[in-house]
Amino acid sequence: MAPTAALAGRERVDKERSAARTKEAILDAALRLFAERGYEATSLQDVGALAGVSRGTPGYFFGSKEELYRAVLERGLERVRAAVRSGKERALASQEPPEVVLEGVVGEYFDFIVENPDFVRLVEWEALSGGRQIGTLPPHLEAAQEALGAIITELALEPGREAEARQLLLSLIGLCWFPVVHGPTVLRALGVDLSDPAFRAERRRHVIKLVLQGVRAELGGSSSSPLSMDSQHDRRDA
Amino acid sequence: MAPTAALAGRERVDKERSAARTKEAILDAALRLFAERGYEATSLQDVGALAGVSRGTPGYFFGSKEELYRAVLERGLERVRAAVRSGKERALASQEPPEVVLEGVVGEYFDFIVENPDFVRLVEWEALSGGRQIGTLPPHLEAAQEALGAIITELALEPGREAEARQLLLSLIGLCWFPVVHGPTVLRALGVDLSDPAFRAERRRHVIKLVLQGVRAELGGSSSSPLSMDSQHDRRDA
DNA sequence: TGTAGCTTGCTGGTTAGCAAGCAAGGACTA
DNA sequence: TAGTCCTTGCTTGCTAACCAGCAAGCTACA
């Protein structure tokens, strides 16, 4: 694929012809547009224009619009997987007690999500479209599973309580993603705005608080809720 | 689609010409398709076919595709507003202590959301598209504001703590909506499925637990968290 | 001179919206 | 009671725009 396979010289990084550089530019442009408008509403013409190439170039390098989309998704998921892995390793290596470690991890995750809205929006579009592409991508499963495993290890949960860890992880993700996606709808209806630093900090504290309360309930009680909840009378259990 | 081939005596009310009936059928079809595929990927031809009319009829009644979409959104929001209002009134009229009332309300909300995925998905599409249509619809604000007001009243919060109620409401919505939208992505990556009754019930209990813990923290402490949290050292506060 | 990188012309397919037309069934008239 | 309008409901033909993908061609560089 690369023309510079075994050739010497050519160390100029400037503006020479470079397929790799062009491909990256196309992936960047496509990520921004797919995240912003979704797959259907993004044309290869738009992608080319934003990447500074002609309308035909995205198709030339990626074969088809769908394959370009898959490449964008794959690169995004790979980045997330790397971030999750590094966060996990830092957390597991820490000497602090689980609660303190988790507080740091939750805050970091919140920051990561809020600072990478393109990724969240991309996955959200994908979810609404049925997850037909993301489902076949390998890094997809790994990030989530890895996070789940880390939580179980950190909390030293017995195997049986794994379901609780899964619920907690799900809640953490939902709590962090929600305001990123729903700025124009729910947040607006409530008169708040995630780009307001005060609200963002308030939200951050709130998410940490909720998740840590949930974790505490897990660590404290063994099987029943430690706070004397009698949530036994819920209907519709099948 | 010729007019009724029924020969004699068409006094029957079921198949007479009825603009109202046709419009409802078109709105129903459009809701399903917009919720499932999104605005861009839905053609008026599809809507007409699902509604049992020709490809021109949706345009005939609603003027344009965009106006049809607005009508679908508006009807959906109106229904939600009605549901929120009835839930609110039942809750405020109840004699139970706030915690019990809230537990019922949260469970009811969870059930409502899980049973009305079309509405959730419609709003989600709308959020991703920038909320350009929903932002101009009146019932949009009312449902959320009404819910917020009810929470404040029920908890008898001092005016200053209103921000906490907003955070709690946001979290409740996010916790309930998330699994409805992210079945194909996050839930799948974690190996669970909202259509599994066991998981659904487990999720329901978990959401109730988390939200009630959050409420309890509000009711208990006056300014600082009552559970001896020291979440004072979070960074990036702007 | 060859080839990778990139552009441009073309084609078939799809769509929203418009305009013209057709049918059904009251309302009005004789 | 029969005949005629005329409005409402709905369909179908047409058009201009857009788009993805293909193929042919151009260009810089080794």
What are the defining features of this structure?
homodimer; 238 residues; mainly alpha; disordered N terminus; DNA-binding
- Overall mean pLDDT of chain A stands at 86
Tell me the helix content of chain A.
55-70%
Largest sheet of chain A: none
The number of helical elements of chain A comes to 10
As an assembly, this protein is homodimer
Most extensive chain-chain interface: A-B, 78 and 78 residues
Give, in order, the helices and strands of chain A: HHHHHHHHHH
Cα-atom radius of gyration of chain A: 22 Å
Which residues of chain A sit in consecutive blocks of at least 5 with pLDDT less than 50? Answer: 1-15, 222-238
* Percentage beta strand of chain A: under 5%
Task: Tell the overall outline of chain A.
Answer: globular
By secondary-structure content and strand pairing, the structural class of chain A works out as: mainly alpha
